[in-house]
Amino acid sequence: MSHPHPDLGTPPAPPRGGLRITPLGGLGEIGRNMTVFEHAGRLLIVDCGVLFPEEHQPGVDVILPDFTSIRDRLDDIDAIVLTHGHEDHIGGVPYLLRERKNIPIVGSTLTLAFITAKLKEHRIKPTTIKVREGDRHTIGAFDLEFAAVNHSIPDGLAVAIRTPAGLVVHTGDFKMDQLPLDGRITDLRAFARWGEEGVALFLVDSTNAEVPGFTLSERELTPAIDQVFRTAPRRIIVSSFASHVHRIQQVIDAAARHGRKVAFVGRSMVRNMGIAQELGYLTIPDGMIVDLNVLEKLPDDKVTLICTGSQGEPMAALSRMANRDHVIRIGQGDTVLLASSLIPGNENAIYRVINDLTRWGATVVHKGNAKVHVSGHASAGELMYCYNIIRPRAVMPVHGEWRHLRSNADLAIKTGVDPQRVILAEDGLVVDLVNTTAKITGKVPAGYVYVDGTDVGGVTEAALKDRRTLATEGVITVVVIVDTDTGKLTEPPDFLARGFPHDKNTFTPAVAAITAVLVKAAKEKIGDAHQLEQLISRAIGQWVYRTHRRQPMIIPIVIDA
Ligand SMILES: [Zn+2]
Q1: With 0-12 CB in 10 A as exposed, 13-18 as middle and 19+ as buried, what is 559?
Q2: Ligand 1 center from residue 269 Cα (angstroms)
Q3: What is the pTM assigned to this prediction?
Q4: Average pLDDT of the segment spanning 173-177
Q5: Ion ligand 1 — residues with CB under 5 Å?
Q6: What is the pLDDT at residue 54?
């Protein structure tokens, strides 16, 4: 296996006639998927997503790929191809388009509808190129062909990229449900055709590569969902991703069978389901959907609510219901169905919501106690089918943490791909494909870019460290008015603290430490306020660690009397 080398530097000039592939996100993490392809001086971007922050990144809304390596080449971009409409594939587009508004966006009908609605919120009207499975288009320097893939959102596409360097196939996110609700299966016949032509490099979704066997069909969930509708005594509240059109179709079908009405709750759910219905991806019987205020007048056993918040997101409808911060008051006899995955990192938040809902008297059905979720990604068995059908010359696992990428690489090797041609890359590594041979040649910046409110990129790792310190250790501000010639305090230091006992004597013992520092500094003729602040900071730091075993943020302010 080809592993990244720690000493990689700036890559050489792109090889003539070759294809350069630079993943800027999604390799080493689940999210912010983005790959840049370069040929003949032109760039093609496949996906531009966001990553959602974890608890150790307080205050961060989303995390973007780092655009540094393409920032001075925005005019060289021929297009952004979006494989499907999930946030981790399209969420970064508004931020890239802020840098150049008219980059053409290529995608399927539903994907373009979702990104257009998102861009409208950012007041951007995009230039779009609609494609469908089977289409072949030359866009700038790239000859593109698209094939249908099945995933947990309709209308996903894999893309084949042809240049003189060879045929490269990127799966996007996919699985191989053989009986999907919309009958649109992953097009293995197209994969086979590409395989016959000769795939020089195959970029493959790794999310479920560790999971043995095959991902079950969406249809396998019907009995468990039906069971909920058959037995729920009062209201049913379903939470799912606002993009999981097929899961929501299953819920609507069950509601129809059991004579219940449905209301959508939550901005993104209402918006996306409106789009999906209008474009024919969601089929809803007439009169089935009612407004929330109409629904409230119906008997409880005729009610279904479909809302966002399946990952325990604090601002989403379900968390707010669990907190009694929503017009929907969860009560005894209500049934809550979490028809969704449990994304690693969100466990605490989700179980908190489940516990709160249970405390109000609801019965909560989730993937831990019923078969109400299947993954949207191909498991090991499906991936091996793909390798055997395509027989790629080289493989580069994408979309996954290291363990997923590694498992996917192992699968490729098991099916006979030469281990020397399996490229385990990570974000920022530059892979050059020349004469159908791919190898890692350099590295470009690919760190996290944090979005915090209206700020993009201003929040640094150091700022996040400060936030964590503030959250866990507290803060002490001390104002010291001193005669710097003598080192004498003109009045007692003024302490302001957060995260410590509210007692005016808490910091009295620290005064002696400050006094000692100032007297010593005066003797050594140190009168510079900044230097004194550093000395005071260190003295208080040592005192607070000795007495409280804590390391708060310390902000000293020295005023020369
Ligand atoms: Zn996806």
Answers
A1: exposed
A2: 17
A3: 0.91
A4: 98
A5: 86, 173
A6: 82
